[in-house]
Write the C-alpha cells for this entry.
Amino acid sequence: MRVSEQVKRILDGYESDNPGTKANLARILMHGRLGGSGKLVILPVDQGFEHGPARSFAPNPPAYDPHYHYQLAIDAGLSAYAAPLGFLEGGASTFAGAIPTILKLNSANSLARAKEAPSQAITAGVKDALRLGCAAIGYTIYPGSDAAYDMMHDIAELAREAKSYGLAVVIWSYPRGGNLSKPGETAVDICAYAAHMAALLGAHIIKVKPPTEHLELEAAKKVYEAQKIDVRTLAARVRHVVQSCFAGRRIVVFSGGEAKDLDGLFNEVRAIRDGGANGSIIGRNTFQRPKEDALKMLDTIIQIYQGKA
Amino acid sequence: MRVSEQVKRILDGYESDNPGTKANLARILMHGRLGGSGKLVILPVDQGFEHGPARSFAPNPPAYDPHYHYQLAIDAGLSAYAAPLGFLEGGASTFAGAIPTILKLNSANSLARAKEAPSQAITAGVKDALRLGCAAIGYTIYPGSDAAYDMMHDIAELAREAKSYGLAVVIWSYPRGGNLSKPGETAVDICAYAAHMAALLGAHIIKVKPPTEHLELEAAKKVYEAQKIDVRTLAARVRHVVQSCFAGRRIVVFSGGEAKDLDGLFNEVRAIRDGGANGSIIGRNTFQRPKEDALKMLDTIIQIYQGKA
Amino acid sequence: MRVSEQVKRILDGYESDNPGTKANLARILMHGRLGGSGKLVILPVDQGFEHGPARSFAPNPPAYDPHYHYQLAIDAGLSAYAAPLGFLEGGASTFAGAIPTILKLNSANSLARAKEAPSQAITAGVKDALRLGCAAIGYTIYPGSDAAYDMMHDIAELAREAKSYGLAVVIWSYPRGGNLSKPGETAVDICAYAAHMAALLGAHIIKVKPPTEHLELEAAKKVYEAQKIDVRTLAARVRHVVQSCFAGRRIVVFSGGEAKDLDGLFNEVRAIRDGGANGSIIGRNTFQRPKEDALKMLDTIIQIYQGKA
Amino acid sequence: MRVSEQVKRILDGYESDNPGTKANLARILMHGRLGGSGKLVILPVDQGFEHGPARSFAPNPPAYDPHYHYQLAIDAGLSAYAAPLGFLEGGASTFAGAIPTILKLNSANSLARAKEAPSQAITAGVKDALRLGCAAIGYTIYPGSDAAYDMMHDIAELAREAKSYGLAVVIWSYPRGGNLSKPGETAVDICAYAAHMAALLGAHIIKVKPPTEHLELEAAKKVYEAQKIDVRTLAARVRHVVQSCFAGRRIVVFSGGEAKDLDGLFNEVRAIRDGGANGSIIGRNTFQRPKEDALKMLDTIIQIYQGKA
Amino acid sequence: MRVSEQVKRILDGYESDNPGTKANLARILMHGRLGGSGKLVILPVDQGFEHGPARSFAPNPPAYDPHYHYQLAIDAGLSAYAAPLGFLEGGASTFAGAIPTILKLNSANSLARAKEAPSQAITAGVKDALRLGCAAIGYTIYPGSDAAYDMMHDIAELAREAKSYGLAVVIWSYPRGGNLSKPGETAVDICAYAAHMAALLGAHIIKVKPPTEHLELEAAKKVYEAQKIDVRTLAARVRHVVQSCFAGRRIVVFSGGEAKDLDGLFNEVRAIRDGGANGSIIGRNTFQRPKEDALKMLDTIIQIYQGKA
C-alpha cells in the first residue's frame, strides 16, 4: 500500500503515535472508494444494543445476520465497519482483511433508566480488538453527565492500552445528562466543546453529531457573539467544530443524526464536506433499507465526498 | 470424536473462536442422546442458591447429594450439567469426563432484598472452571436492572478470560428491575432484546425464558406492528428470538419456566423445537420428581427434539 | 500420620481438592483427642474484635495473653484453634506445629453501627495464613444482609486463592440484616439455607448456629409442612442442616450459641452429635472460665462426641 | 548543561529524589531566558478542558493549533509548557527537546455540575508522560472538596510512579467545595494550607493562586493574630506561602488569577517576586492575546523576575 | 549494635515476624537516650496536615523547615521521628541513618467536613517508606467511624506488604464517628478496645490517647463493674490498656493529648510509665515551643521514663 499525499498530510497530524497506530489509521484512510482522498465513510452498527433487534433490523431482516453488515460495507466501498463485540465476532474470520474494523468497547441500551448520570456498559476490551484483527477501538463519552469523569478516565486507560498495541482510537462524544437541556445536546458550543475534549483525550478520530445553531452556555454565548463566530449554516458550524479539533489536525466525522429523507441527508453531507470535516458515520439510514437502496444512497454520499454530487 | 455435519455447521457460526473453545462447544453438542443433532438439553441446578435447599430438594431428598445430579444428567443422556461451584466440586472427580459441565459463576438468593437494582453474587471464577474440568462458564445478566451495566462489564471480562483458555460462555439473560413491569420481564420484545444483547456480549450459548405475546416498550410495539412480526404462537416467538441471535448463528436454549403439568411442558418444548431453537435447560421440573419420573420426562423431551414425540 | 478410615471417608467428600488441601483437612481431623474419629472441636477466639477485650477476657484475665488460647486448645486436646491475625501472630512461633490453626480473615466489632447492610472488615489475607503456618482460612458471611453479595464475592476470591495453596476453607454463615427478623436469624429454614450457601461457595468446613424451630420464609414454610420435614428436636434440625450440606459430604460444626449453664450446653452438644454433625466450635464458654473448669467442660464435650457422656 | 549555583541550591532541597527526577527539575530550571536564575515562568494550556475551545481560543484563533503554544513558549523563552494529553500529543514530536513539557493528568470541565464534592477526570497517566518525553506530571487537588481524600490518594500513587521513572511532580492546589466559602478559596490561611499539603504530598513544584487578606478558618485566624503573621500585602502573603512550603525548600509558583489589565498583572508578578516565590504560571493572559502582545507581556514578566522591571 | 536484654524480651513478643522487621523494631528500641531500656519517645509531626502550617509552626517558625524536626529529635535523643511523605522527603538524605523514621501513610485535614464516616487520605505507600529508609510505616484507624472497616482493610493490606519487606507497623487507633459520643472517644473501655483491635490488626507499636474514667458502652460497663476493673487512676487505666494489648506482648505508647501546662504533662507521663506502657508520642507540645524549652521538656520526660524524675 502506497499512502497518498493527502493521507500522509493527515497522518502527520498524529506525530506522537507509533508506526503501528499510524499504519492502522492509514488502513482506514486508504480503504474503499474514498481511499487516499482524506475522506472516509464508516458503517457503525450498535443499534442492536441501543434500540434492540426488532427496531434495528426488522425493517430489513437480512440485517439480523452479522455477515450482512460486513458485506454491505465492502460492497459499498466504505472505509471501515464499527460494531460491538458479538457482531464483529460473527464475521471476523470470514471477512478477515476485507475491511478495517472498529471494536466498539461500550454501549448503552433502551432498558436502562434515564438518569442525570447516563453512562454505558463496557462490553469489550482492547485485547478483544487485537484478537479480532481490528484497526481501532471505539468508545462513547457523555460530556455533561454526572458519570462523565469516570467515562473519561476509562477511555484514557483504554486508549493508552490501545495505542501501546498500535491500534487507533475513535471517540463518540455525545453530550447529555447533568444540567444539559435537550437542545443543548446538539448546540454548537456544546458540540465543539465535546469534540475538543475528545481530542484532548487523545482520540485519533472524533465523532460528533451535526450541531444546531443553538448556544447552550451563557459564558460561551458571549464569546460567540463578541468574536462573531459564524454559526449560521451547518457548513460554518462544521468548520468551527473541525477548528476546535486542533485546527484540523484530527479526523472529525459526523453522524447522520435522526432518520430523515434522502435529500435532507445528502444536503447534510454536503454541508459536512463543505465545512471541511473528514466524513460521515452512517448507521440506521444504511442498514434499515433494502440493500440496493442502501448501496445507491452510499454511492451518492461517496460521490458527494468526491465532489461529484 | 467425529463431529457431525449438523454440529459442524453450528460451529461455523463461531468463526472467531479458538480451537479450544470450539472443541468445548463440540463436547457439549456431541454428548448424550442428542449428540450430533444440533439439539441439546442441559440440566441446571442452581436452585440451592435461588430458593434454598428445602424448597429445592426436599420434594426428592436424594437430590441433596451433588452426585445425584451428575448421575441423573448422565442416565438421561443429557448434553451438559450446569451448577455453582460447590455443587460441581462435590462430584467433579467422580464424574470427570462423564458429562460436560458448566460452572455457573454468579447466583442470587431469596434472602437478598428485592430492589430496583437486582444483581447476583459472583461466587466463582474462570480459574475454578479450569481446575474442575468444565467445558464452559455460565453467567446471568439482568437487563433493565440498575445494576445491568456492571453485570455486563463483569461478564465481558470473564468471557474474555474464559475464551482465552478455550472455554465456552453461556449467558442467562433474564430481564428485571429498573422500569420493567412484571409482565415485561417475559414480553417478547424484551426477551428478544435480552437474547440479542447476550449475543452482542459474546455468548456462545444464550439462555432465555419462553416469551409471552406481551409487548413492553412503546417504541418497539410500533415496529412489531408496522413490520407485522408474528408473535401469536410460542413457536413464532421462539423463531423471532432465534433470529434476534444473529439470524441463527448462535445457540439459543429456553428454560422450562414455572412448574406446570407435563403436557404443558411437552407442548412448550415442541414449540421451542418448532421455532428452531437449539434446546432446553430444565431444572426444577427434573430434579424435584422421583428419578424414574424425571428420566421418563426427559426421555419424552429428547424424543420431541428428535422429532419422535 | 496414618489417616483413619473414618477420616478417609470424610476426605473422599472433597474429591475436587488438591492433596495439599486434603492434607490440611486431615491435619485438623487427625489432631487432638477426637483425632481420627471424624468429629472435631475447634476453639475460636474472635471475641476481642466482636466484644472488645474487657468483655472477652476480664472474666478470666490470663486469657488476655494470646499464648493462653493456644495452650488451652492443646491441653484440652482440641482439633484446631481459630483467631484473627494479631492473636495468631502472638503465638504462631511458640506453638508452631503444636496445633492446627485457622486464620480468621474478617471480623466485625461492637463500635460499628447496626445497619441493614451489616458487614465485616477484612483484616488479613491468604498470604498471612501461609506465613503463619495455618491449616485453613476462616471467613464470615451474613446471608440476608444488603452486603451479602459482596461478602460472597470476597470469600469466593479468597477461597480460590487459599485452595490453590493447599489451604482449607472454613465459612461461618450467620444470617442477618436486610429483611430478616431477629428470630429469623436462627430459624431452621434460614440456618439450613445459610449452611447450603456456604457449601455452594466451596467451604470445606461450615459453621452455623444451632437452629430453632422457627420458620422464617413463607415459601419455605409451605415446603417444610408439605414434605413433613422434622424440625421438632434440635437433633432433627441438625440432621436437616447436615443433609443441606450436600447430604453429609461437607463437615458441619455448630457454635455454642449464647452463654448458658453447663447442662444446657452439654445437651446441646448431644443433640448436635445425635443429628450427625461433625462437632462444635466453642469460644466464650471456654476461655471465660478458669482454665481448670474449661478443661473439665471440654473433656465432657469430647466424651460426648466419643459417645461416652 | 552546567547547572548554576542558584539552581543547585534549589535542587539540594529535593534531597530524597533520584538523579532522574533532579535532572528533569534541572531541565526546567535551566531552560529559557530565566534559566539558571532559580526563577521560572510556565505556560499552562488546560483552558480547552476548563472552558471549552471557543472561550479559550476564539479571541486569538491561531491558538486552536497545538503547535501555537509550543512555539509561543519557545519564542518567549519560557521555562516549560504544561497541557493535557491531546494537546501535548499534537506537537510532542515536532518540538521534541525544544522545551520541557508537563503532562497535566487530570482536568475539570464546565459541563460538569457544581457540587460539594468537585473533582476532576483523570485523563492521562504517567506512562503517557514518558512516551511523550515530558519532564514532569501535573495534577490538581481540591482541598476542602468532599472528594479531596480520593484526589490526594490518586496523586500519591501517581507521584510515586512518576518519581520511580525520574519524572518531576507539579501539584495545582486549588481549595474549593465542602464547607469553604467563595472568598475562602483564596483566603491566605487556606492558600498556605493548600500549598503546605501539596508539599506534604511530595510535590516538587507547587502551584497556588495569589492569596487575599481574608482569613477563613476561626482556629487559624486566632493564630494569625496571636503570632502577628503579616498578611497585609501580597508580597507578605506570598512570603508566608513560600515559608509554608518547607521554609523555601520547595518551588512555589503562582497563577495569574482572573484576567486583569497588564499593569495589575505586572504588579502582581512583582509582589510574587518580592515575596520570594519562584515564578508564575500564566495561561489565559498569554494565549488569548495576539502573539506579539503576548511576547511583549511575557518579556516584561521575565524582566520583572530578572529584577529589571 | 548489641540488643539489650530488656529489648530482647520485647522482641520475643513479636515471634511471628521476620528478622528484618525485628531489626527495625530493634533500631527504634535501641536508639536515643532511652535506647535499650524498653521505653521510647517518638516525635510525630503530622500537624501540617491536621491543622495547617500556621497553626502548627507559626508559634515556633523554625519548625516550618523539615530539617528542624529531624534535628530536634536527634538533639533530644528521641527514639524515632514520624511524619508524612513530604516532610520526610525534606530531610531523609541529610539525616540518613541518624534517627529511625516512621512514614505516616494516611492523614486527615481540617478542610475536610466532619461526618459520621470520618476517614483519612492515604498519601503515601510502603514503597515510599522503603526508598526513604524508614524503619516503620504508620497508619491511623478510626474505630467507630462508618469508614472503619475500609480503614482496617487498608491497613491490613499495607501491613502485610510492610512486613514482607521487613518494616515495622505502627497503628494510631483513634475512636470517632458513628454512634460514639465525644467523651466516648477517650473513654477507657473504648480506648482499650481500640488498642486491642490495633493489636489484632497486627500492629507492632500501638498508639492511643490517655483514657478517661468514662465508660461508653453499656455492655462493657457491666463487665467493668462486675470484674472490678480498676479505672480510677490514669496509671490503672494505662495498665488496663497495656493488658488489652496481648498482656504486654505489644509496645503501647500514648499521645500527649491536648496542650496543657508542663506539670500536667509530666504527671501524665509518670502515670503512663507507672501503668507499664512503653512510652510517649509527643508532637505539638514539642515543636510549638522554642527549641531550648522543648529540649528541656523532653529531657524531663526521658528522665521520667528512666525513673529519675
Chain D has a mean pLDDT of 96. Residues 39 and 278 of chain D are 5 Å apart (CA to CA). The beta strands of chain D are 40-44, 80-83, 101-104, 106-107, 121-122, 136-141, 168-173, 205-208, 251-255, 279-281.
